What we know:
By secondary structure, this protein is of the alpha+beta class. The protein has 29 helices and 24 strands. The chain has a seven-stranded mixed sheet, with helices on both faces. The longest helix is centred in the C-terminal third of the chain and has 31 residues, at 710-740.
Amino acid sequence: MRPGIGRPSSSKNTSLNATIRDQSGAGKVKVGEILSKDGYITSTQLKHALDLQKTNNERLGSILLKLGYIEENTIVNVLSRLYNYPVADLTKVAPDEQVLKILPYDIAKKYMTFPLSLKGEDLSITMAEPTDTALIENLQNEVKKTLQVSVSTEKDIIHAYRTHYKIKDDEYESYFRGKEEVEEDVPVTTVDDFGSLVSEAEGDVELKSFHEEENLKDEYLANDAPIIKLVNGILIKAINDGISDVHIEPFETAVQVRYRLDGALYKSMNLPATIKNALTSRIKILAGLDIAERRVPQDGRIKMSFGKRQDVDLRVSTLPIMHGESIVMRILDRGALSVDLTKLGFDKNIFEIIKRCISRPYGLLLVTGPTGSGKTTTLYSILNTLNKEDIKILTAEDPIEFNFRGINQVNVREKVGLTFAVALRAFLRQDPDVIMVGEIRDLETAEIAIKAATTGHLVFSTLHTNDSPSTISRMMDIGIPPYMLASSITMVLSQRLSRKLCNKCKVEVNYHDPKELQNMGFSEEEIPDLKILGPKGCPGCNQTGYKGRIGLYELMEVTEEVAKVINAGVPEDQLRKTAIQEGMMTLREAGLEKIRNGITSVEEILKNTTITKEALPAYLVSPDTEEYSDREMIIREGNTDTDFFKLIQGSLIVVKGGKKIAQIVQPGEYFGEIAAITGEPRTASILSNKRSIVKRFPGDKLEEVIEKYPDVAKHLFEVLGTRLHQADKNLVKLIAAKVKG
Length: 741
């Protein structure tokens, strides 16, 4: 039998076994035994995982991860640190086609492995669980090569499958779909007929004696079977339907129950007013609140065991209103929470900037937006990315919405003096690498956060501001000097959540007026060919036309230029101009891109974003003139924009390489036209000298400009003629010099 075709020789098997034993020192010891031996899991947890493995035949490491007994990187860290396995960074690996053919996807999937490279007869691979030599011998027999084994996380290997084997999205998602199916299914009782249940509860209330002491009566009724079933039914329906908030609002003649789905409220049911006290008391009992206290607001939490999702938390808030107590329950479903930074819908450029900012060892990173805009999810996703064994993370939250293994979370309690500022001050004595402050509310918290950011810590926090540039103004209003902001803040991310059009029923619409679309921010040229989709409604989206939500992001990276502007304490509008020049995409522009891609509707973007003067196209902001203040940049050296200008009033400074080389003082003088004619990058910067007024001409619309402005056309042709004449003279000189030579 020829070498490399049939079964490998015994010498190769011997070599492989020796290699594996040398790498791990574990021989045929399974990964579960290694983790138990080194104290990462208990023997009880190992037994539980092994019992589940017998029923579903999954890999043990995958089961341990899904059960939450270990973290994503635990196996990699243990095998590399204690058993000398090399760790393969799959983001830096690009195997050629030959290697992928030797280890095709079907075999790779079977062993949760991925090929790295081939040298002679040695195939380098990486595996999620490389400790079982019998398994690796089977793999060696299938590929007919000697194996050199490394270790990688299961998640990284699956990502490599999508990148290099080009597996379909459904296949890729199938690896993560079963995460909630590890535990045995617990049946959940749902309510099919709310009307009958409400009638039963109402009848029960009427049978009770109204001469009983009111609080005792309500507590008794709250524990009565129909009321218990009703409350459970309301909550189970909300969780099953993916609701984020449940609103229970008593009015004079009825109790209204409303659900918030994908950011929009809708009425679910009307309940009789006679059961409002029993209903309120039942929810208060579950949340651990005082049922006798109805005069002041109260806050509490409910923890429900809910089938495969295990535990679902509900944050409960009560508010005394005219006809009783309004109750709002925020559903915190850990099973529905996505804390994968790659799945939040970031634009590629924004995602790269975020990765760059969070990889720095220090700095202040702010996430802004109104309540319910997804700030917490974004921060948790970033922290989850940074959550590794060699990084200590401390958070101060009010309240803690989700608990994460490996992150030290502190619940702020202002009543006992544990404020954000107090927690932050204590954090600095806990030797953290990463700090997250739930919200910057006052000067003291802001000062400590900035101190931490400038002394070697990566600090995250949130503010309630409208956009990224206004966040700097807000911090100045709190009392932070501009120079401290410029030196400590590395990025500001402003975000909104917009409803996504239902993929099953979205349709093309053509009822939008072109002028309105232009005022919204679309360019005049793209409107005729613009395909806009809108909602229709189907059973899959409850006839709303929308299903799910997508993030809109405005990321202002504090580059050198932005830092200079912040340090100078310029107004917010000038900061916004500079940020846009430095590459910031505004919230409105992010929304327009989602419309272009058919993800959401015009109405959703109009509802969630506003357009600022600085973000509008020049011909919409001011078709004729623009005003600039002292030292404000009009043209930046090296930029590739093609607009040109005419000085109307004032004077300008021409700067090249940081040095002043000329001035423009004559009204009517044109500047910047060479870039419009040649498309070459700007050779110098032009700044306003004190206050100036200029007229802007769009360089990408030269034909329209020449047709509309004869004097501009004359000037452009004169410039072009002068340059051609000069080029001819230079060419004649070169030819003459060559003839003489």
